[in-house]
């Protein structure tokens, strides 16, 4: 029995040093839907020009707690650039991160967290568009790792350009 207690204590000690990454809560932080051309837009052929603007940001809330926001603006225009609808959603998530620092933390907040939030953002956008009277809108999957790497590269290039001009 004493050996089991010591084994449990050793396992707990080993686990205490392990990195932890947990999703604590997912929530819609902000949302809006506009259809400025309704109801006339419903009388036109539905061949919209869509634009999608997707952004992420993160901030430390408290010890080991981080908020990550995934925001999207989708604009659909028809005919002579008449706006059929404009939908904006900010999907938030509260994440607990312990024992992950530096580049690993940056990757967790910039890649893993947006990947977890995206399905919820996608559903919120689709729901608002359908409730607005338009056909379902399924946002295409996003490779957040590629976006993260591109943003890091652009940031490094800007820093290099700024340091050469001084």
From TrEMBL:
UniProt entry tagged with the keyword Protein transport: yes
A Pfam family it matches: SecB
Keyword Chaperone among UniProt keywords: yes
UniProt cross-references to InterPro entries, sorted A to Z: SecB (IPR003708), SecB-like_sf (IPR035958)
Keywords: Chaperone, Cytoplasm, Protein transport, Translocation, Transport
Superkingdom in the source lineage: Bacteria
Main subcellular location: cytoplasm
One Gene Ontology term from the biological process aspect of the record: protein folding
GO MF annotations in UniProt: unfolded protein binding
Gene Ontology cellular component terms for the protein in this record: cytoplasm
Subcellular location: Cytoplasm
Protein role: One of the proteins required for the normal export of preproteins out of the cell cytoplasm. It is a molecular chaperone that binds to a subset of precursor proteins, maintaining them in a translocation-competent state. It also specifically binds to its receptor SecA.
Family: Belongs to the SecB family.
Complex and partners: Homotetramer, a dimer of dimers. One homotetramer interacts with 1 SecA dimer.
PANTHER family: PROTEIN-EXPORT PROTEIN SECB, PTHR36918
Record protein name field: Protein-export protein SecB
